[in-house]
Specification:
With about 210 residues, this protein is mainly α. The chain has 10 helices and 2 strands, in the order αβαβαααααααα.
């Protein structure tokens, strides 16, 4: 644990040095766990301030003056930002105009799930009316509700597999008003409950052979 904590401290220090010439000077660094005087002295040479280590607990606290948060980044450039934004817009436009309509609808649904992914909004983003969108999807042998369900199931399975989110959290992220609605829809589409799917996914992961 000490190794990981110290490694992350110096990683933060390195990133700050890359962002701002000279880095952001720490005014105080405290290691809750014990460190030897030799270690503290060596760390002080790199960090610019000699850390303290009172012992007890764990973790590390590094403090710098909040005034530095308002400093402009020397590598910041309005031109670079504009170019990056233009590239992102071009990429999004390309994804929206290429490939089957169903693929483009999946992209739009994914980006608007937290707002419920209403068909009217998705159709507008694709430059067509809901009626036209419905007809185009029918020509491809699918429907808006089917694609919405597919996207929700796919994302739900990915989120549940992490084991980091509760069923309620996943339901909110997928645009459901309440967890019970999500559970009912997930069971209807997959034949199992979100909890069962989460347990099964973690079981497969733990049973998978490791190199």
């Amino acid at each position: 644990r000490e190794f990981l904590v110290d490694r992350d401290l110096f990683a933060i220090d390195s990133v700050l040095r890359d962002l701002v010439p000279g880095g952001l000077p720490f005014t105080e660094v405290t290691f809750a766990g014990g460190r030897t005087d030799e270690t503290l002295a060596a760390y002080g040479e790199r960090l610019g301030t000699v850390p303290s280590s009172p012992g007890g607990g764990d973790g590390v606290t590094a403090v710098f003056d909040a005034v530095h948060l308002d400093r402009p980044l020397p590598q910041g450039s309005a031109g670079a930002v504009a170019m990056a934004e233009a590239l992102c817009r071009d990429l999004a436009a390309t994804r929206r105009t290429r490939g089957p309509v169903s693929s483009r609808v999946r992209v739009e649904i994914t980006g608007s799930l937290s707002q419920g992914a209403p068909m009217t909004s998705v159709a507008a983003a694709l430059g067509m009316s809901p009626r036209t969108l419905r007809r185009r999807l029918a020509d491809e042998g699918t429907s808006y509700q089917r694609l919405l369900g597919d996207v929700r199931v796919e994302l739900a399975e990915r989120m549940l597999a992490t084991g980091l989110l509760s069923v309620e959290d996943v339901a909110i992220r997928l645009g459901y008003a309440e967890a019970s609605s999500f559970i009912h829809a997930f069971r209807r589409l997959t034949g199992t409950t979100p909890h069962q799917a989460s347990v099964a996914s973690r079981t497969r992961t733990s049973a998978a052979p490791r190199a």
